[in-house]
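Review form for a predicted model. The reviewer records the input and the model, then writes brief findings.
Reviewer: anonymous (R2)
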Amino acid sequence: MRYILFLVGLSFLACKKEDHGPYSTGGPKPGVVTNVQSTALPGGAQLTYSLPNSEGLLYVLATFDRTPGNPQQVKASYYNNSLQVQGFPDTLPHVVTLYAVTRSEVKSDPVTVTVHPGLPPVTKVFRSLQVSVDFGGINIHFTNPDTANIDIVTLSNDSLGIYSPVDNHYTKSAEDSFAVHGFDTTRRKFGVFILDQYGNHSDTVTVYLSPLFEKFVDKSTFAELDLPGDINYDWGLPMPNLWDGIYDNPDGNIWHSQPVPAGGWPVWITFDMGKVVKLSRCALWQRPSDQWIYAQNNLINFELWGSTAPNPDGSWDASWTKILSHTIKKPSGLPEGQVSTADEAAAAAGEQMNVSLDVPAVRYIRIKIYSTWSMNAANIAEVSFWGTY
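Model under review:
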């Protein structure tokens, strides 16, 4: 009987709800932080202070409103004597209240300080925007000197005529340009504004433009051009597989290079589009399936070059013009051999690359490969181009 009661007691203890609260309750109120100094940051401020000599001190709490009715708080360990308050949408004065807090969650008396944030990143990026016409849409150039996480939102009329967001470009690049495609040549209204991670947004710049004509480049005229110095194919997987329109066969419809010895990079291949094209954008697909994407012999760093009359000796001379440089980045950042649904979606969509308007029209394409995941060989599933011809 005692044994049964003992087991029942253990069961009761095992099922008893645990209450995770402060280590202790009550206790003396800590002293206040002193010598508070404020230094402006883009859209925020850094506060430095002296900590009170109070027993059980755990952290300093800062409370503030980014905008009226939008309360925020930031905590900093007692190991530090500074914290940052961020996300203000303007350079107006904002009041921050500081508390010293003990392990028992006892707060000190409040200490207030007025901060004067620097110019927010959304405003800086907005002021830098340059919007111009591009093939099938618009080109947007910007600078982001604070390398802040931002979303550049493009607005236009959708298929139903509703003026709404048509593109989101997420970036923290210090400077870049990109194109928003998919429109016919009809004159239309475009709007662009900046959104940050705190929900702040800029004004909207509005332009009326007629996108330049572009179309998908027909691949039926594509042909291999085997120039001296070009790398050959291997495993019975030749270059014409790059334009056979099959994107999802990991074994039978890809181009695969011969092995590349150590020190043998870069390598390149050359082909003829069969017509002179003013390129607007292009796309490249990796060898598919979870076994291969962002791994093995799929590309990492490469360049595209173009020519209208390449030197038949295969040399890299003035007959070639660089079209673009590109680095394939794995969205998830997971180690090689592990993929996420975001990785799968990005690989299926292909690497989409815009071509600058100042690149001349070309007929012959060279893919110059600097690195792959394995550095043993290279493979590509498919390539596509858009432009006017």
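Findings: Residues 1-22 have pLDDT under 50 and may be disordered.
Further findings: Helices lie at 2-15, 121-128, 341-349.
Recommendation: see findings above.
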